[in-house]
Write a structure and sequence with these properties.
By secondary structure, the protein is an alpha+beta fold. 35% of the residues lie in helices and 9% in strands. The chain is built from 4 helices and 2 strands, in the order E-E-H-H-H-H. The protein has a two-stranded antiparallel sheet. A hairpin with a 5-residue loop joins strand 1 and strand 2. The termini are far apart.
Amino acid sequence: TDLIYTQGMEGRFISVNPAMNKLFGYDTDDFLGRRAIDFMEPEFQSDFDRRYLEVVKKKGYHEGTACYFKKKRGKGLS
């Protein structure tokens, strides 16, 4: 049930586990190669690079929470 994923240094998903697919309603292929920001609520997107990626690049990891959104029925990512 834990959400487990890996990302590259630009915030693109490299891997996701089945819990990610189940919770958000996307297939693995929908995640891979996409930036995490593509799945975030618009009001949180502006902080992603500054408050997440910069910390990862400096410290090698990030601890905290993120706000993503579920796939809407009949709608995909553009």
